Amino acid sequence: MKVVFLDIKASYSELKNELDAAYQRVANSGWYILGEEVEAFETEFATYCGAKHCIGVGNGLDALHLILRAYGIGTGDEVIVPANTYIATWLAVSHTGATPVPVEPNEQTYNIDATVIEAAITKQTKAIMPVHLYGQPADMEPILEIARHYNLKVIEDAAQAHGATYKGKRTGSLGDAAGFSFYPGKNLGALGDGGAVVTNDDALAEKVRVLRNYGSKVKYHNETQGFNSRLDPLQAAFLRVKLKYLDTWNKRRQKIAQQYQEGLADTPGIILPFVPEWAEPVWHLFVIRSQRRDELQQKLGDANISTMIHYPIPPHLQPAYANMKKGNFPISEAIHREILSLPMFPQLAPPEIEQVISSVLNVF
Ligand SMILES: *Cc1c(COP(=O)(O)O)cnc(C)c1O
């Protein structure tokens, strides 16, 4: 039996009737940019996150970029980011003209280590951008405390964590603002690109609304030099269908994670994901760690099991950030050398999970 890493079409097949109906509704409405469908999704997703505002944008990168812009962050400013993240977190900062200042992750959670943030703060620091990596919420309380003390914004990169909770509160409602991605493979995924800004900050919400639409509140009246980054009504309609299933599908991911955790418990040579008692993760990815990662991936491949690495190269070692020195982030670099993502998606069946588990155990 072949086990795929992610069967993206399975989520369409499962909801085909409802998604097809959503397509028909939008196509027949004759309204293809912003409008009621986008507004309805924005209201529903803000409510889901437990926040006041949601603004639909073109993708997750734009969501983060527009938040930073709307807070007036730009050239000469610094934003603290995790060294261990997808490059989009950094790019959002760089695109404003500001500098991403990376800090190392916590060894157990792989998320930003709040205890080393303070050492990275300078007079130029304007914000901290924790990432809820792999669907595991970052430890927000100490981060918010540091931010209050130094008067910094806290911007959540929630692109992998739709529905995850920290001390009972959903991601998207924890900081000053949050950026979500609806890239098809995310826990809440569109059938194309999409993203959203979620916030309780009225002024920020207003600014992002204007920035995403050419800097214009009234058509052909431009207050600022804005962007074109709008969530499509068609994607909004698909997302409204899938939002209804998000909790159910996150629960399935949780069960899969549990099966992995139990099946692989106490295996020498591999480190399983660690879940702090204050976190309820949504398992965007199930990431194990091993010093024999490359061999493990090879052998699983031989056994017809596809795995992936999230991510093989940290941002500071990418040619895109060639100005940064190697070796400054040893924890991050070690994580990148040793992590492996096992198959994870809501339609993954228990016998497939069992096969992954036995194939991993065969290697160790
Ligand atoms: C997916 C992702 C993004 C960017 O989202 P896009 O919609 O692809 O632009 C940002 N940050 C993280 C952590 C992500 O995983």
Any overview of this molecule?
By secondary structure, this protein is an alpha/beta fold. Helix content is 38%, strand content 15%. The protein contains eleven helices and 14 strands. It has a seven-stranded mixed sheet, sandwiched between helices.
Straight-line distance between termini = 21 Å
Write the element-wise H/E pattern from the N-terminal end onward. HHHEHEHEEHEEEEEHEEHEEHHEH
Average pLDDT for all residues? 97
Poorly predicted tracts of residues: none
The chain-level structural class is: alpha/beta
Radius of gyration: 20 Å
- Which compounds are bound in this model? pyridoxal-5'-phosphate
> How many DSSP-defined strands?
14
> Which percent range describes the beta-strand content?
5-15%
Shape by Cα distribution:
globular
Q: Please report the number of helical segments.
A: 11
Q: Any descriptors?
A:
364 residues; alpha/beta; three-stranded antiparallel β-sheet; 38% helix; binds pyridoxal-5'-phosphate
What's the layout of helices and strands?
Layout: H1 9-14, H2 16-29, H3 36-49, E1 53-57, H4 60-70, E2 78-82, H5 87-94, E3 99-103, E4 125-128, H6 140-150, E5 153-157, E6 165-166, E7 169-170, E8 177-181, E9 195-199, H7 202-211, E10 216-218, E11 221-222, H8 233-263, E12 279-280, E13 286-289, H9 293-302, H10 330-338, E14 339-342, H11 350-363
Parallel strand pairs: 2-3, 2-4, 4-5, 5-8
Antiparallel strand pairs: 1-9, 6-7, 6-12, 8-9, 10-11, 13-14
Bound molecules: pyridoxal-5'-phosphate.
